[in-house]
Amino acid sequence: MAIVVLALLGGLGWLGTRFFYRPQTTPAAVASGAGGPPPVPVIAAAVEEKDVPIYLDGIGTVQAFNTVTVNPRVDGELKNIAFTEGQMVKAGDVLAEIDDAPYRTAYDQAVAKKAQDDAQLANAQLNMIREEDLFAKKAVSAQERDTQQALVKQLEATVKADAAAIASAKVQLDYTRIVAPIAGRTGLRLVDQGNIVHAADRTGIVVVTQLQPISLVFTLPEQDLTAIHKAGEDNASPAILAVDRDTKSTLDEGKLSVIDNQIDTTTGTIRLKAEFPNEKLQLWPGQFANARLLLNVRKKATVVPASVVQRGPQGAFAFVIKADETAEIRPIKVGPIEQGSALVEEGLKAGERVVVDGQYKLQAGSHVKIGEAKAASAGAAPGGGGRPAGAGK
């Protein structure tokens, strides 16, 4: 019986050794990663130091520099439409022609009338010379001489009136050729060839819109006015970027031309106007566009990819990779975020490594395994506007 009990106890001891014994994890094993949680794979980037432009963003509407409704200045039949809808025209280009027969006839009559009066004046001047000779010889009275002098002056005035009538008839004749008053693009035709048009018509023949240069009118909060004036002191015409509604592409580059002379008290905003050359015609009257006013360029600013910035109850922070390949949570103060890069006011310095991707698995002190590194500003999608963010407050 004792032999059986000893055999059972020996078997139980062997089973305990086989199934329940686990080797102890040493501190050295923890430090080397053996026996502990595996390193967290992350993407890292180095904090950079570079010049960063600071912008103010506003939403605006594109406006033509000049828009003219081309109206006839004389009455008559519209004989010819000389433009194509949507055509670019120069100032002075013929757009349409009105039947000029009545006006050419009036012009010819005025020319003939002047020729008639010129002949009468020449005859009166000859008679006056004769009257002067006869008066000197006392062959005629002073009254007859004075009457002849008055006739000459009367005919001289008539000839001047004839010249004015010719000029007036010439103007009316010229008005039968309707020309573009400005350089621009024609719109849709408003009247068809063959119609009778009048100088009093309000519809017009076509609308010509100047597209080069072009304006963008936009608004900014009134609290930005001081910064705008400061930018104007540093640069008489601060640079303006016109970007599309998605802020992904720049449509044109121009300059600030006008700051409105009063603030809209209902909205607390100030209106501004920028001028753009619009060489590629990417700006169109009536188009909505975002305006980006360049305030200044921050020299040697600390910059990280925007994805580095994390948000928590205490504000903005970033995961910094220390020399022993562990993650440190570092509170930071974030400035503007521009084109996928964040300007860091406080908390980081150039050369430090920060986590760009993989933060969701990290905690303070976590070991990391660094994957492919990226430049500080690379790989990020174009970000929001350049208005200083309130991050870190």
Quick take:
The protein is 26% helix and 36% strand. It is of the alpha+beta class and 393 residues long. The strands form four sheets. Strands 1, 16, 17, 18, 21 and 22 form a six-stranded mixed beta sheet that branches. Strands 2-11-14-13-12-15 form a six-stranded antiparallel barrel.
Q: Helix and strand layout, with pairings?
A:
Layout: H1 2-19, H2 27-32, E1 40-46, E2 48-64, E3 67-70, E4 76-81, E5 88-89, E6 94-98, H3 101-136, H4 142-174, E7 177-179, E8 184-186, E9 196-197, E10 206-209, E11 214-221, H5 225-234, E12 239-243, E13 250-264, E14 269-276, E15 288-305, E16 310-312, E17 315-321, E18 327-331, E19 333-338, E20 341-346, E21 353-357, E22 368-370
Parallel strand pairs: 1-22
Antiparallel strand pairs: 1-21, 2-11, 2-15, 3-10, 4-6, 4-9, 5-8, 6-7, 8-10, 11-14, 12-13, 12-15, 13-14, 15-20, 16-17, 17-18, 17-21, 19-20
Helix pairs in contact: 3-4
What can you tell me about this protein's structure?
It is a single chain. With 393 residues, the chain is α+β, with helices and mostly antiparallel strands. Among the domains are: 29-53 and 300-370, conserved putative lor/sdh protein from methanococcus maripaludis s2 fold, CATH 2.40.420.20; 100-175, Helix Hairpins (Orthogonal Bundle). The chain has 5 helices and 22 strands. The chain has helices at residues 2-19, 27-32, 101-136, 142-174, 225-234, and strands at 40-46, 48-64, 67-70, 76-81, 88-89, 94-98, 177-179, 184-186, 196-197, 206-209, 214-221, 239-243, 250-264, 269-276, 288-305, 310-312, 315-321, 327-331, 333-338, 341-346, 353-357, 368-370. Strands 1, 16, 17, 18, 21 and 22 form a 6-stranded mixed sheet that branches. A hairpin with a 2-residue loop joins strand 19 and strand 20 (341-346). Helix 3 (101-136) runs antiparallel to helix 4. The longest helix has 36 residues, at 101-136. The radius of gyration is 44 Å and the shape is elongated. Residues 14-33 and 374-393 have low confidence and may be disordered.
